[in-house]
Amino acid sequence: MAIPTTKGELISAINERYVKLEAALDAVPTDIADEKSMDGHAKGTGMSVNNLVSYLIGWNELVLKWLDQDAQGKDIEFPDVGYKWNELGALAQKFYRDYSASSFAENRKRLTVAKDQLVSEISKRTDDELYGSAWHGKWTKGRMIQFNSSSPYENARSRIRKWLKSKAG
């Protein structure tokens, strides 16, 4: 899929990749969704499929926070307060902890809600607002959203499929 350059393409990319991610998640047996047998986002760590869903929730909700802060004219601390771009492994670990008390089913619902909110927020913006100028460094708002939504959905889907194949023997 080409890199989105319009609001419509961004929404399509998010929705299409999310549908494929959901199909991969549907294939995960609930009784092993919390098994930490997948490589984690930080070197030398492990994670479960539920952790991976937590990671996606964390990024989707973080993007929503960025958009809210931007709409209020506030400065945004990218990627998040207390984290730098070279500390994304630690941020991933935070996301795992943030949603660790929730079941796989609960986290899947929360991810769907976050994805739907993100699509709603994107829908409120113009192509020019999303792609007309740099927002963070050289990246446009649309590209920053894509980096942290549809791209991770695709990556997560690939990880899950690979993990499921390894489980099958």
What do the pLDDT scores average to? 96
**Shape field:** globular
Distance N terminus to C terminus? 31 Å
Query: Which strands sit side by side, in order, in the main sheet?
Result: 1-2
Number of H- or I-type helical stretches:
7
Question: Can you give the helix content as a percent range?
Answer: 55-70%
- Given as residue ranges, the uncertain stretches (5+ residues, pLDDT < 50) are none
Order of helices and strands: HEEHHHHEEHH
Radius of gyration: 16 Å
Q: Give the class from helix and strand content and strand pairing.
A: mainly alpha
Task: Report the count of strand segments.
Answer: 4
Largest sheet: 2 strands, antiparallel
Strand content: 5-15%
Please supply descriptive tags for the structure shown above.
4 strands; two-stranded antiparallel ribbon; 7 helices; mainly alpha
Structure overview:
The protein has helices spanning 7-26, 49-71, 88-98, 104-123, 127-131, 141-147, 150-168; strands at residues 38-39, 46-47, 134-136, 139-140. The two termini are 31 Å apart. The protein is mainly alpha-helical and 169 residues long. It is globular, with a radius of gyration of 16 Å. The model has no long low-confidence stretch (mean pLDDT 96). It contains seven helices and four strands.
